[in-house]
Amino acid sequence: MCGESSVKKTLVFVHELVASSPTRSRGGADGVVIETRQRFGGATFDLMMRVALAVPCYVDQFRPEAARATLTLLERLGCEVSLGFDAPCCGQPMFNAGVVTAARGAAHEWARASAEFDAIVMPSGSCTHHVRHHVPALLDDEASRHAARVTYELCEFIAGVLGKPQLTGRFPHRVAMHLGCHAQRGLRLGGSTELHEPPQGPMHTLLSGLDGVDIVPLDRPDECCGFGGSFAVGEAEVSVVMGRDKLADVARHGAEVLVSSDPSCLLHLDAIVRHGGSSLRTMHIAELLEEATR
Length: 294
Fold this sequence. Notes:
The protein is of the alpha/beta class.
């Protein structure tokens, strides 16, 4: 297997190599499917990435259709995805609640499960942010740093690692985009109004490339939806009001669909939509892209 070559063992940051190299997909065993070619000292080497799908625990329980759409989409894009990633939770809920001992235990399991993979794809910006920034801080070892290096949010993986910023597909609807706070300001996967940046980032790019789609501008495009993990439990009334404000902005601009890359935000907003009797359709970005590219 190319993934076990001595050349590959010299690579400290596999994801940086892949992001900067021409890529192509190739089927194979053990989830080894993303092939890159890179030159070292005048010689060219073939390297393979072992790709796994990591489904966040709340997605597994409350929005499994987002996980199914992610798997279908990645396979449609040429990946043979391993489902062998067996860590049940990255530990973000415990970390946010201040239960550090439990968060560290979950982080150990995540780092252990990450060891055999070169890319771990998650349909969640907040979980990706936790793994990339907090898991190494909790454990401070090479296993946790490896986990941080190889964990990707779905859109950044498709547009960056796979090198597919534009997909062939059609979605003829008016779409409002919500990028969760962790993806927006933690992972820097979108433009921030406080920095006077225009809408940008991998989710915006992937949406923009679809035929027929109309991305509606919002008055406050990067405002928090009010979920905020344990904040939605401890400050439920404030959380709901913030969600209603976000949805009012969406409604003012006549959106038919609200899309997000973060299932936790989506669950929060979808509950408010259903409670209010709105006809607005809420979709995870994986669900939208999977539907658009059928």
